[in-house]
Design a protein that fits this description.
single chain, about 190 residues, alpha+beta, eight-stranded antiparallel beta barrel, 1 helix, 9 strands
Length: about 190
């Protein structure tokens, strides 16, 4: 009987010990390779031009909805692919710091309240973030003074990033715009 009690106590002790080992292994696995998280703020300008000899945004599908307020001919459903230059100032001649590559879709059927769905990769080409990217997605309510988009991921220095982008219109003429971006990221 004592032998059975000892075996039973030993088995219980081993199961408890293995639970503790499993728990600490699981905790360690969560933190492996993550390291200390840093906050970053970047300020830049995005040059989105769909007119002229070298447009940075082109229509790949035409919508059939109403014309959007403030636009020359953009309609609900228009889909554009972009490869916009990012600079450190509002002038197109400012120093390039990256590219905004992705697409946007005129997603609001109310022509008086234009909004586009934006999905883009912000590719950074200058130090200290050269080669890193941020994945940005969200609703751009075009007529709002400040719009907020989500940073949903990244690569390189911004692996597993999260944060947000505050977007303002610096200038707008027809279908061409310069947008001011303030990017706040935790990675």
């Amino acid at each position: 009987m004592a032998r059975q009690l000892t075996f039973s106590a030993l088995a219980t002790l081993l199961m408890a010990a293995s639970s503790v080992v499993s728990l600490s292994s699981a905790r360690g696995a969560i933190h492996v390779g993550v390291g200390a998280e840093e906050s970053h703020h970047m300020h830049m300008y995005m040059h989105d031009f769909s007119t002229g000899p070298n447009p940075s945004a082109v229509v790949v599908a035409r919508g059939t909805g109403p014309t959007l307020r403030g636009s020359v001919d953009r309609r609900f459903g228009d889909t554009l692919v972009m490869d916009d230059t990012l600079t450190d100032g509002p002038s197109p001649a400012s120093r390039a710091v990256g590219r905004a590559q992705g697409f946007y879709v005129a997603a609001s059927s109310a022509g008086s309240d234009p909004a586009v769905l934006v999905s883009m990769n912000v590719l950074l080409t200058s130090a200290p973030y050269n080669g890193s990217t941020l994945a940005v997605s969200g609703r751009n309510a075009v007529m709002a003074q400040v719009r907020e988009l989500s940073v949903v991921g990244g690569t390189g220095r911004f692996r597993m990033a999260r944060g947000y982008v505050l977007m303002k219109t610096a200038s707008w003429s027809g279908n061409d715009a310069v947008l001011e971006l303030d990017i706040f990221v935790h990675a």
